[in-house]
Amino acid sequence: MSRAGTDQAEGLRRLIDRSGLQVVSVSRDGSDQPGAIVNLAGALAELGRDVLILDEQTGARGITGALGLKPRFDLGEVIAGRRELDDMIVTGPAGIRVLSLAHCKGLLSELSEREQRRLVERFGRLSVPVDTLLVQSASGQASSLLSCGTGVREVVVLAGGGAREITAGYALIKRLNNEFARHEFHVLVSNVASENMARTIVSNMATVARRYLRVSLDFIGHVPPDEKLQHAARLGLPVVTAFPAAAAAASFRGMAQAIAAWPRSEDGICGLGDIMSRVISSNNQRTAAA
Does any domain span residue 90? Predict the structure, then answer.
């Protein structure tokens, strides 16, 4: 098929497939959060998903920092009309696309109505295909994307196997419930040898969360201790790309398959323009309430 025919077929596919985006947030108060979301992105891309990471974090805690990437332009230039949103997207190893939205919350509260409309329009004109958004969310009130009305349908919380890590994971769930009225979470347990052990950890957390928070927790998977995971991180690659046969790679593939089976948005969210419109509306409501 010619390039023109391929482009037309792709455009037709995107017009027909209006089933909505799949939007998943990954949250943890810990240093390996970038690694988890990079590995999930790599595994989802291996399944054929068109993945874009929205990165609210800065520095080494952010995806761009973890992968050694540097965005050439910021959101201010998009708002001013000097750049398209495509110019902000950076592509890392294994074709991982990242859009940095660090400091987005403070900027949104300063926009005029005209600038808000322009920003929504620019987000709606993104040229690259996207069917899955992975959100590297900032912690707590620093996030612009975790409010229920913004389109983030699923929230994955990372927890470890030690007592301190389990306590930190529960504390994060409690904070997200208090601040964003989130009542359903998926839990990924890292650095635990067996699935049975990981399931027991999540089951115990779920019992406490259901009793004291009226929150439900779902086990999504676990990542066993694997030196190949750290080696892949040093190389700046997803483990499924660097070491396809590694135990950690198999774990992330299993979680990617589970995520791919989740339903997409059912409330009319069909593109990034819809997401940004909801983020602005939610931010305006919270600013007015404050």
Answer: yes
Domain assignment of residue 114, yes or no: yes
1 domain-assigned: no
DSSP assignment of 200-266 equals HHHHHHHHHHHHHT--EEEEEEEE---HHHHHHHHHTS-HHHH-TTSHHHHHHHHHHHHHHHS----
Q: Can you give the CATH number for the domain in which 274 is found?
A: 3.40.50.300
Does residue 175 fall inside a structural domain?
A: no
This prediction has a pTM of 0.85
pLDDT in tens, the chain (290 residues): 444 444 444 444 443 344 567 889 888 765 556 789 999 999 999 999 999 998 877 666 778 877 888 888 888 888 888 889 899 999 988 888 999 887 676 677 788 888 888 888 988 888 888 889 898 876 555 566 666 666 778 999 999 999 999 999 999 999 989 988 889 999 999 999 999 999 999 999 999 999 999 999 999 999 999 999 999 988 889 999 999 999 999 999 999 999 999 987 655 555 788 888 888 887 777 767 66
Range of the domain at 255: 22-153+226-289
